[in-house]
Amino acid sequence: MRVDRFLSNLPCFNRQQVRLLLVEKRVRIDGEITRDPHAEVREFSRVEVDDQVLQAGKPVRHFMLHKPAGCVSATRDPQHPTVLDLIHEPDKDDLHIAGRLDFNTTGLMLITNDGSWSRRLTQPQTKLPKVYYVETEQTIGPEYALKFSEGLYFAFEDLTTQPAGLELLGPKSARLSIVEGRYHQVKRMFGHFDNKVLRLHRERMGPLVLDEVLKPGEYRPLSDKEIEMI
Ligand code: URA
Question: Which segments constitute the RNA-binding S4 domain (predicted)?
């Protein structure tokens, strides 16, 4: 939200007063004086007028986890361990998963408390590729790549999937790049050819690649540089 709107929404200031506060350099966002009425205030921003704290702000947090098989992409589950059970951090309840994986799918999982960051990562419109290593029961035929690049019709959602890239690695293994994350998307794409996915591993989401040193179940915070890439 713009800082002028943030301030005038408070009961203590009207719009005229907000304009003056900004001109008089009395407003600080994250410790920096701002005169710009368009300056952005986020839920994470600390906002002060003179020495009065109007919003305390909170730290933005982003983690990369190597999801193991046999764990649910949810914050809570009555039966199975969840990916959040693997994270040992304060205020875990603020965290959410950016792009779920199925119970037995392994690989890169991004976890954050920043909703607009995770939306940028997962929205099909931003077209960030999600790259999967896939192993299948049957041979992957040459016709798959063309069909995947044309898009597949998913009757349940009444949509056609966006063009996907398929790179064959072996007779029954491939690397698939998709820009959206429909329910069981990869399995349904191979299912179109009656070919069952036996192993599925997410290697990359946009520019963020699963760290090779992370073993299944391990995680680490993202660096500032990685966070800014999204
Ligand atoms: N597509 C699937 O079918 N499963 C996943 O876990 C991820 C993508």
Answer: 1-58
Which residues are CB-neighbours of 78 under 8 A, at least 6 positions away?
none
Q: Which CATH number fits domain 62-224: 3.90.280.10, 3.30.2350.10, 2.60.40.10, 3.40.718.10?
A: 3.30.2350.10
pLDDT digits (tens, 9 = 90+) for 42-64: 888 999 999 899 988 888 999 99
What's 9's DSSP letter?
T
Instruction: Tell me the backbone φ, ψ of residue 169, rounded to 5 degrees.
Output: -110, -25
CATH 3.10.290.10 domain residues, the chain: 3-55
For 192, what's the count of Cα atoms within 13 Å in the CB-facing half-sphere?
A: 21
Atom of ligand 1 nearest to the CA of 187: 3
> What are the pLDDT digits (tens) for 143-180?
999 999 999 999 999 999 999 999 999 999 999 999 99
Q: What is the pTM of this model?
A: 0.84
Domain 3-55 has CATH 3.40.50.300: no
131 lines ligand 1 (CB under 6 A): no
CB of 200 closer than 6 A to ligand 1?
yes
Ligand 1 contacts CB of residue 164 (under 6 A): no
What's the CA gap between 6 and 96, in Å, rounded? Answer: 25
Active site residues: 102
